[in-house]
Design a protein that fits this description.
Length: about 300
């Protein structure tokens, strides 16, 4: 019985993958996101008022948010279902259960859709860094799907999408001009920063560790390509985190200090605790100027008198 159970587990964790399923998932995913884009376009025209230049960005970001939500659910399922059978540094290359394979094909379909959307909307050159990112990701994901390797490794990389749920939602709230002081925005900001550290940071560490540990199992081309992508992400992520921290946390503190200084300036002006003397002097000066008074105290009559 134990031997049969072990054999069944091996078949589940290391099945013979059917390429037709992967291709089918990719095609269905591309069609699905074009439908999602159309639905968001229709809904946003009723709910959100944006400039023409921002409408495509809103739709593109909303579609990315939907992808991140679905990926987060898929990653959680894979973790909950296979957490007792995964050795992160040893099984990431050969492990290829169908749920992970389907999730990888789904994300590949999304990146293909987004790549096409950028081209169709004339944004591929304007957002060249996104285009380069998509090309690199599609090369790596496509290679893994084609050769049935590093499937679980790719799903490990997709845990960054858990952070993207809050990263994209934060930007959508900004685009609809939700006040920064609103509880929903503040909660999203907090979750964004926490998940950024745990899921983007942790993903980078685990991928680098797995890449170095299993380098003998990779082809030279794949190892170099993945290494270059990782270097790019290691440089990009700290910069992105600093911008988020400066925008959502440090800006609030700077604004508070400026407001406090302005308040202090109104309270204490030239030794006058109430500011009454200064205000009275300004009023007197404005009245004198209106009457045409000179510096020696003599005033001219109004031309209308």
């Amino acid at each position: 019985m134990d031997a049969n159970a072990d054999l069944a587990l091996q078949d589940e964790l290391y099945p013979e993958l059917d390429d037709r399923i992967g291709v089918g998932v990719i095609v269905i995913t591309i069609a699905f996101f074009f439908v999602v884009n159309a639905v968001i376009l229709r809904l946003s025209q009723r709910v959100v008022t944006l400039k023409m230049t921002s409408q495509w960005r809103w739709r593109n970001l909303a579609v990315s948010w939907v992808h991140a939500d679905i990926c987060a659910l898929g990653i959680w399922y894979c973790y909950a279902h296979y957490r007792h059978h995964i050795q992160v540094l040893t099984d990431m290359i050969d492990l290829r259960p169908y749920p992970a394979y389907i999730l990888l094909a789904f994300s590949t379909g999304y990146f293909l859709y987004d790549f096409l959307d950028h081209i169709l909307q004339g944004q591929s050159m304007k957002q060249w860094e996104v285009t380069l990112h998509h090309i690199a990701v599609l090369f790596i994901f496509g290679y893994n799907l084609l050769f049935h390797t590093s499937v679980a490794f790719s799903v490990l990389a997709l845990i960054v999408e858990i952070n993207s749920v809050f990263l994209h939602f934060r930007k959508l709230l900004q685009m609809v001009q939700l006040p920064f002081s609103h509880w929903l925005y503040r909660t999203t900001v907090a979750l964004n920063l926490v998940t950024f550290v745990f899921f983007r940071g942790a993903a980078m560490v685990l991928i680098w560790a797995g890449l170095l540990y299993s380098r003998h199992k990779f082809s030279v081309v794949y190892f170099v390509a993945l290494g270059l992508v990782m270097v790019f992400m290691i440089v990009l992520n700290p910069v992105l985190f600093w911008r988020l921290l400066r925008s959502d946390v440090l800006r609030g503190r700077r604004k508070t200090r400026v407001q406090q200084k302005e308040a202090d300036g109104h309270v204490v002006q030239n030794g006058d605790p109430t500011g009454t003397a200064t205000a009275a002097a300004r009023i007197s000066e404005n009245v004198s100027r209106g009457l045409g008074c000179q510096s020696d105290g003599t005033c001219c009559k109004s031309k209308t008198s």
